[in-house]
Amino acid sequence: MDLVSGKYYPNHITWFEGSSKGFKKGVIIEEGPLKLKEGQEKLKGVPPQYKATPHFVDFDNDGDLDLFTYGFDHIWFNRNVGTKENFKFGNRELLYTTEGEPLKTTHPTIVVMDWDNDGVLDIVSTDGNNPDSKDVGLCYFKGMGNEKFAAPVAIVKNKKGKKYVPGRAHWICATDWNNDGKTDLLVGASIAYREGEYFKDYNNLKKDFLAQFKDENGKRDSRAMMKFFKSMKNYGHIYLLLGK
């Protein structure tokens, strides 16, 4: 059994090969350079200098594992141009919708799987890029074939029809939790409380919120900000979403 780990900065993917004596020294997985279209250098989060988390799946159905990475804004794909035993990854590329838009959420964690059971791989993702709510949602990008995807669709909504999952720093795991043959989702989240109440603004710190931490000269008062956040308590929660 091996261990693969991402890194915040620089965003290398490191492979720790398992052995009878434990894990060997980590080796940075080599990959080709970024492959961007003209004008994409100005996209937020491009190039992806921070936070790369790996996810492996045989995306092109050629018998070897390809590499997905995700972090702040976009979902990236590296094709395995080697073999199953001797992997070698090509360029880190953006994935696109059928309309030509890059797949984009904020602070995504993903699972690549056939979510809708149509024989084509989809991407289930946390969705922080949510104008309807201060809370992160869950969405999926339906695979349309030819390595293209449909626009994201919310998986969970609140009573008002808005995308909604409480908390922040979400992680997801897809499994058949209750052995009924249907895919369930386990969603981990950090829930922040202050003075006994759920603090929603912790997810989406807007300028008007940060303004209260400025001193008389209009500069950010870091001490006041740290004092405020130290007054908060974070609790880990795990949500179980049963498949229908």
Question: Which characteristics define this entry?
Answer:
single chain; 244 residues; mainly beta; four-stranded antiparallel β-sheet
Mind explaining what this structure looks like?
It is a single chain. By secondary structure, this protein is mainly beta. It is 5% helix and 39% strand. The protein has helices at 207-210, 222-230, and strands spanning 3-5, 14-16, 18-19, 22-23, 27-28, 31-35, 53-57, 66-70, 75-80, 89-94, 96-97, 110-113, 122-127, 137-141, 143-145, 148-149, 153-154, 168-175, 184-194, 197-198, 232-241. It has a five-stranded mixed β-sheet with strand order 6-10-9-8-7, with no helix packed on it. The chain has a four-stranded antiparallel β-sheet with strand order 12-13-14-17, with no helix packed on it. Strands 18, 19, 20 and 21 form a four-stranded antiparallel β-sheet that branches. β3 and β4 (22-23) form a beta hairpin.
